[in-house]
Amino acid sequence: MKKYISKLHYLTHDLPSRSHIEQTEIACKAGANWIQYRCFSKDDEGLIKELHQIASICDDWGATLILTNHYHLLDKVDAQGVHLENMEADFIAIRNIISDEKTLGASANSIEDIQRIAHSGVVDYIGCGPFSHTATKPNDYPHLGVAGYTHIAENMQKNSLDIPVLAVGGVNIGDVDSLLSTGIYGIAVSAAVNHAEDPGQALKEFYRKTH
């Protein structure tokens, strides 16, 4: 089942000064149509309680809500899918658990990851990175840069890999045009919005660049 995938994914984050609910409200009011809830600071009870409010906000604004990793909560909250950061996950088994109705996203760091995930036949989109330095999801993977995404897009075209790939990890507003010119599908942002002086305005600028 071919699903709608936005060209701009906004990820909430565990921030000391702004709740995930507040982050979601700001993003939706600014025009975000894809919210990825990325919370690692609560137990399931806390996640469900917060997600009920976040799902209501997303529903009011017509935004897609995706959970990071917590696919076991999909039958308890009104979310449209899940994004798995574990690249070694059994995507077919998880697809069977969540059903074809839900959107399934995956993380990748290389064209080899993309090929393997795409060949599973059950993933709807891939977030690939890091583009550059990111403190949101610290890792030791090499930075892809614009050249890395150019290589990925060319390889995908050559091998007829038809799956949306989004650049993620340290993407700033000044990077968007050059990234999209590589031929990749879109971008995912977190810190560039969350740590901006005016998060709503920052998100509006990203939206304008990607739509």
Automatic annotation (TrEMBL):
All copies of domain Thiamine phosphate synthase/TenI, residue ranges: 17-193
Pfam families: TMP-TENI (PF02581)
GO-annotated biological processes: thiamine biosynthetic process
Organism in which the protein naturally occurs: Daejeonella lutea
Name used for this protein in its record: Thiamine-phosphate pyrophosphorylase
Molecular function, one GO term: thiamine-phosphate diphosphorylase activity
Known pathway: Cofactor biosynthesis; thiamine diphosphate biosynthesis
InterPro entries associated with the record: Aldolase_TIM, ThiamineP_synth_sf, ThiamineP_synth_TenI
Keyword Thylakoid: no
Keywords: Thiamine biosynthesis
An example Gene Ontology CC term for this record: cytoplasm
